[in-house]
Amino acid sequence: MSDFPVIDTPRLILRELSQADVPVLFAIHRDAETMQWFGTEPLTEYAQAEQLLALFASWRTLANPGVRWGIESKAGQGLLGTCGLFKWNRQWRSCAIGFELARSAQGQGLMAEALQAIVRWGFEQMALNRIEAQVHPQNLASLRLLERAGFVREGLAREAGYWLGAHHDLVQCSLLRADVVAR
């Protein structure tokens, strides 16, 4: 992956994250309510947001690369969250999807718009056949979002996640290329 793939949707620009986004990343990732289902501890120090930015940037250089986009509103609200495709298994033509959105931007259909765009990009540009998601069973908003996007619940991965000092079951979901073609 050489040039960063910028994606344009009706209301959003999905773009590369930059150092200027660190304050917003910190605000989103330190919000315990927003991060309760993210799979990591909420951030407590600004430097952790800088490390998160570096982690997302490093995904593009891995043997099994990924892309994490910053979600920016065309209405000029700045960075609203991120979404990405990662853990790309080229041989199996599969990867995982992840996302988070600031609380102030939730409930407006913005993440649905972003996910539709990156799913399409993944199938077209990465030649994916399968995109996977793992979601906490109580994260009903994300489960509904994925189901509206065509993801299918496959089962429960028992104690597959660990954060906030506890193991968590995760609902395994997937979207296949054939599911998108059939829609």
Features:
alpha+beta; 34% strand; 8-stranded mixed sheet; 183 residues; Aminopeptidase; globular; 6 helices
Please tell me about this protein's structure.
The chain is of the alpha+beta class and 183 residues long. The chain has a domain at 7-129: Aminopeptidase (3-Layer(aba) Sandwich), CATH 3.40.630. Helices cover 31% and strands 34% of the residues. The protein is built from 6 helices and 8 strands. It has an 8-stranded mixed β-sheet, sandwiched between helices. Strand 4 and strand 5 form a beta hairpin. The radius of gyration is 16 Å and the shape is globular.
Layout of strands and helices, then pairs:
Elements: E1 7-8, E2 12-16, H1 22-30, H2 32-35, H3 46-58, E3 67-73, E4 79-89, E5 94-101, H4 110-125, E6 130-135, H5 140-148, E7 152-163, E8 166-176, H6 177-182
Helix pairs in contact: 1-3
Q: What's this, in brief?
A:
Helix 1 packs across helix 3. The protein starts with 6 loop residues before the first strand and ends with a helix. It is globular.
Strand content: 25-35%
Gross CATH architecture of the domain at 7-129? 3-Layer(aba) Sandwich
Rg, alpha carbons: 16 Å
- Arithmetic mean of pLDDT: 93
- As a percent range, the share of helical residues equals 25-40%
Estimate the global geometry from the Cα principal axes.
globular
Widest sheet: strand ordering: 1-2-3-4-5-6-8-7
Number of helices: 6
Separation of the first and last Cα atoms: 29 Å
CATH fold name of the domain at 7-129, please?
Aminopeptidase
At the first level of CATH, the class of the domain at 7-129 is Alpha Beta
Low-confidence blocks of residues: none
